C-alpha cells in the first residue's frame, strides 16, 4: 500500500544528518533506477511572454518589465526543426511550454497537430500550457501527448505570496484532469521563492500524497529575473537544495526527479551531489524557456566526468541517432569513455 507522508515523517527526513539523508536517498535510488543513467529532456517555448498571470518569479508575466522578447505561437516548421535538433543531440523527450493561463479552444487543433508531428519523430511529448479542462486534456492525449507539466510550485500556505491569479486548488484540479485523461504527470516546484523549510516539506507531501505520484518531478531553483518581484531573493544554500532533492527521492521513489531551472548557477560538484541524492533527469540544451541553461558541451563534459549516460527510451532505434556527438569537439573520446 502507498505510504502517506505526514509532516512528522517528512520533518524527520529533513532533520537527518546530511550524510545519513544522502545515503538513504541513494539507496532508494538504486532500488528503483540505474544510478549511472540520466533522462534527457529538451524545452522549447512555443509561445512567449505577455502572460496574464502574476507568478512573481516569472519572466513571462505581462505585469513585470523583464525585457524578454515576446513571441506568438511558433510555426510548426520551426517547432519540428527544434524537436529534430533535440532528438539528434540525445534528448528523448520534447517539452513545449506556452505562456498562457490556459489554452484557448481556437488553438486546440493546432496544438493537436504539433503533438502528432513531434510524436511521429519518435520522441516522447510533453506540454505545459497552464490549466486545461477535461475535453482539452482528452484531445491532447488522443493526439499522442505523453506528459503534461503543471507545477504546484510551493506549499499551499506560501502559494498566496507567489501567485494570486490562479488558486492552489485550480492547480490540483488540473493535475487530476491530466490523470483522468490518461496522461503521465510532470509536477514539481521551485526552491528559493522565500519559502521556509516547512513549506518545502509541505510541497513534497502534496506531490507524494497525490493519488498516483507524478512520473516526473521537476525541482527548479529560482532563477532571479530582473524586473520580477523576486529579483532580490536570497540565494538558496546549495546543501539545502541537495537536501530537498534527497527528500524528494525518498518520498517519490519511482519518479524521475529533474534538476531543472537554475543549473547555470550550480557548479559541477553541486550538480553531482544532486545526482547522488537521486536526481536523474535534466533539461538539456542551452535554453530553458526564456532563460539560459548550461551549454550542451558543458553537460556532456559533466556526464563524462561522472560516467553518466543517457537513458534511451525503448522506441528509439540506434544510440547514434540519439546522442549525436559528431557535433561536439570531444566526440570520439566522449563516445569511448561513456561506453556508448
Ligand atoms: N504557463 C504555464 C504554467 O505556468 O503552467 C507553463 C509555463 S511555466 C513558465 C512553467 C514553470 O516554470 C512554472 O510553473 C515554474 O515552476 C517554472 N519557472 C518559471 N519561471 C521560473 C524561474 N524564474 N525560476 C525557476 N522556475 C521558473
Ligand atoms: C519546469 O518545472 N521548469 C521548466 C519547465 N517545467 C517548463 C521551466 C523553467 C523556466 C525557467 C525560466 C525561463 O526559462 O523562462
Ligand atoms: Fe504565465 Fe506560466 Fe509564467 Fe505564470 S509561470 S506568469 S502562468 S508563463
UniProtKB/TrEMBL annotation:
Binds 1 [2Fe-2S] cluster. The cluster is coordinated with 3 cysteines and 1 arginine. Residues 36-260 form the Radical SAM core domain. Pathway: Cofactor biosynthesis; biotin biosynthesis; biotin from 7,8-diaminononanoate: step 2/2. It comes from the Bacteria. [4Fe-4S] cluster binds at residues 51, 55, 58. GO terms for biological process: biotin biosynthetic process. Its cofactor is [2Fe-2S] cluster; [4Fe-4S] cluster. GO terms for molecular function: 2 iron, 2 sulfur cluster binding; 4 iron, 4 sulfur cluster binding; biotin synthase activity; iron ion binding. Keywords: 2Fe-2S, 4Fe-4S, Biotin biosynthesis, Iron, Iron-sulfur, Metal-binding, S-adenosyl-L-methionine, Transferase. It catalyses: (4R,5S)-dethiobiotin + (sulfur carrier)-SH + 2 reduced [2Fe-2S]-[ferredoxin] + 2 S-adenosyl-L-methionine = (sulfur carrier)-H + biotin + 2 5'-deoxyadenosine + 2 L-methionine + 2 oxidized [2Fe-2S]-[ferredoxin]. Gene3D superfamilies: Aldolase class I (3.20.20.70). CDD domains: Radical_SAM. Its EC number is 2.8.1.6. It holds the Pfam family Radical_SAM. [2Fe-2S] cluster binds at residues 95, 126, 186, 258. Belongs to the radical SAM superfamily. Biotin synthase family. Catalyzes the conversion of dethiobiotin (DTB) to biotin by the insertion of a sulfur atom into dethiobiotin via a radical-based mechanism. Homodimer. This is Biotin synthase.
